[in-house]
Design a protein that fits this description.
With 236 residues, the chain is an alpha/beta fold. Helices cover 33% and strands 21% of the residues.
């Protein structure tokens, strides 16, 4: 059952990824909104756990499309790095082709692992802006942090695409909002600092919260985050 959030009844949708896996998503259409946010979630949980962040995005004035990668929630298939990247492209194309949302009216949102997915997607499809919350700068960097022995392996041993957000951001011209809590014990705050510094244009903003951890922004700083999301419009 798709929940009703902020007075808007979400629509359940199914679409296919490149490999034929059926993916499941929710679409919240806010009639007065100019932009739609495509939400790429993190490794933990499913879209059913994202009602809180979806509510904040709706409060900020955006329509929202969120979905589960293959192997998550009610989506078919098995999750792989190449698979979830393909899923994000399929979600974007479903938005433009089936829901008739213009590509330059889509803001791509990445949460945790979804940050890397979102950066890769922005390299494949034109979009209005990027929102990157609590993400890592590259797969190799976070693997080395969580599993130090992996620092010994060269980049070419990592699966493709390598989910290297830094490389994308260095050449990207897309407006970007980067958000990270300083209490994050899952992905170091320094990863977002590094990504922000990699962006080579002025249409960027870094919002940090001293008392926010990895995934509690909805409960710790809800109103402050809504205002930050509203402010993104000024960058577009």
């Amino acid at each position: 059952m798709v929940p009703c959030l902020e007075g808007i009844q979400g629509k359940n949708v199914d679409f296919e990824s490149k490999n034929g896996s059926r993916l499941n998503g929710w679409y919240y259409k806010k009639s007065e909104s100019r932009f739609t946010i495509l939400f790429n979630h993190g490794n933990a949980g499913t879209i059913e756990n994202r009602a809180g962040i979806c509510s904040l995005l709706l409060k900020a004035g955006y329509s929202v499309f969120l979905y589960d990668y293959q192997g998550y929630g009610y989506s078919e298939g098995i999750a792989t790095i190449s698979g979830i990247v393909e899923d994000s492209v399929a979600a974007f194309d479903y938005l433009t082709n089936n829901l008739e949302v213009k590509s330059d009216e889509i803001m791509i949102y990445g949460e945790s692992l979804g940050v890397a997915v979102s950066c890769h997607l922005s390299d494949q499809r034109k979009c209005a802006a990027l929102i990157l919350q609590s993400g890592f700068s590259s797969l190799k960097a976070i693997a080395g942090y969580r599993y130090p022995i992996l620092r010994l392996y060269p980049k070419w041993l990592y699966p493709l695409p390598g989910l290297d957000s830094l490389s994308v951001l260095k050449r990207s011209k897309v407006p970007v909002l980067i958000v990270h809590g300083k209490l994050d014990a899952v992905i170091p705050y320094s990863h977002s600092e590094e990504m922000f510094n990699a962006v080579n244009h002025d249409k960027k903003q870094f919002v940090s919260y001293a008392d926010v951890a990895h995934s509690d922004i909805c409960t710790v700083k809800p109103q402050e985050y809504v205002e930050a999301l509203k402010g993104l419009i000024s960058l577009v």
